[in-house]
Amino acid sequence: MTGRLASIASRMDRLYEFDREPVAPDKLQPGGKFAGLFAGEHVAATEFVIGAFFVLHGVTAKDLFIGLLFGNLLAVLSWTFICAPIAVRTRLTLYWYLRKIAGPGLTIVYNLANAVLYCILAGAMIAVSATAVGLAFGIKTPALTAVFPASPGWVLLTVVIGALFTALAILGFEQLSRFAEVCSPWIFIVFIAGGLAVLPRLGVRPGFGNFWQVATTKIWNGLPVAGQDKFGLWHVMFFAWFCNLAMHVGLSDMAVLRYAKKWTYGLFTAFGMYPGHMLAWICSGIMVAGVGREMNPGLMAYEALGLAGVGGLVLAGWTTANPTLYRAGLALQSISPGWPRWKVTLAAGAATTFLSCFPVFFVKLLDYVAIYGLVLMPIGAVVFAEHWIFPRLGIEQYRAEKRGWTFNGPALAIWMGTLAVCFLMPIHLYFRWLPGYLLALVFYVLLGLRRKN
Amino acid sequence: MKKRILAVLSLTCLAACLAAPFLHFLGKLSSEVDKQVFLAASVGWFVLAPLWARRR
Q1: Is residue A213 in some structural domain?
Q2: How far, in Å, are B10, B12, B49, B55, B56 from residue B4 at the CA level?
Q3: Which of residues 1-56 of B touch A (CB under 8 A)?
Q4: Which of A13-27, A230-244, A360-374 has the lowest mean pLDDT?
């Protein structure tokens, strides 16, 4: 078992070899690059669903605007004060830093968990795109309570779109990534244009004079649709905060921010949170109100912008599924000895396509996003404690690396223990990660102190 | 020179994508025309922007 793990770890190391060394000073990037990168990264197909779900969950206009303002601010501050300082001090990706702290075995487990979560996320993107293509063939979008596919047509549609996305990813990931760069400003425009185009239908007069009155009565009127929980200010604020939990508190954006000249470059994530998330969610909320509060991203885009809107939704799904498939493939490559890139992408694409048939990941997207962040969050706490708190308390750092451990037992125990405690917490799913994070931090430090004494 | 022309044309298409729904909102364009202009400007962006990007 240990020999097998060592062999997997060594193969995985070879895969990530190109970023094994800390970023050299001449490779650091200016702030403008980060502004552009974050602005493009945070406008995806899922934004069509998230903003619309706030309407369906009966959020009031006041709660929405205040919640998004502060929730996104907390997300920006998490990037700036938690992720960026560690990234700038180490200049390493989370993969290599975690390897020093948790050992190669635990890093493999973390990578696999990430791969599965990525596949589910890409599956949700495919399902969102499927609602657009399904319009042309009269295939009904799944109900909000659906878990399994309701019709063979939906299965066929998701399989065809999934196969297409996978084939395109196999044929040329690099070229497609460059094309995605062209798509991202246009997709951002699709959201704003879609929201604007629907406003007259809702009764907003030119000049926005009655916008607030329409917003509070016809869009975010505080009334949830049947079967949906009522959300308030705290739900919106926490959702906006944890939406990218794995990236900021979970530290996976160390891969990007290690190229920053200063830790304050974390503030550039505001370009992704405010013009990105906040504006896109507001616009998709307006669009869903324009179609009578029916959760059907395809219909929302079509009613707002016609065929171009449908194209926008498909492109938004594809441009975000493409790098997600790549990341999942990279994580899977570690356990498939000698497999070429195309075969791994095919495996990740097949798993993703299978998952996309199940509408539960799309109709429960908000919960899935919460679970995604929750699962990876304890590892962020472990790294944070080891980086900042251990040296201040005189606890030895990087014991896994120094002693050649495959698994850092305390880190694994904290990860699993935190998830078990979070599972049992008698509070809403959205609020569990914060006490979970603090518990993970405190208990990992206590385990370190016990070892020291 | 060609790069600059491509940049101007691409950004004009993107601006037209935004202008069409705004004019519709102001009551100057019907919903149908808004959608047609948006589609045409989008096609323009996807033809020109990759050419511009290639020269950058």
Answers
A1: yes
A2: 10, 12, 12, 10, 10
A3: 14, 17-18, 20-22, 24-27, 31, 34-36, 38-39, 42, 45-46, 49-50, 53
A4: A13-27
A417 in a structural domain: no
Measuring CA to CA, how many Å separate B48 from each of A14, A101, B17, B43, B53?
Answer: 39, 48, 14, 9, 9
- Provide the token pair at A7: 């062999």
Query: Which residues on A lie below 8 Å from B56 (Cβ)?
Result: none
Evaluate whether residue A363 is within a structural domain. Answer: yes
Q: What is the largest CA-CA distance in chain B?
A: 39
Owning domain of residue A75: 33-375
Q: What is the pLDDT of residues A325-353, one digit of tens each?
A: 877 777 777 666 577 778 888 988 999 99
pLDDT (tens digit per residue) in A262-312? 999 999 999 999 988 999 999 999 999 999 999 999 999 999 999 999 999
Kindly determine whether residue A206 and residue B27, on different chains, have CB atoms separated by under 8 Å: yes
**Confidence check: pLDDT of A17 > 60:** no
Tokens, residue A331: 């994580």
Q: What's the CATH code of the domain at A68?
A: 1.10.4160.10
Tell me the domain boundaries of chain B. 2-55
What's the total number of domains in chain A?
A: 1
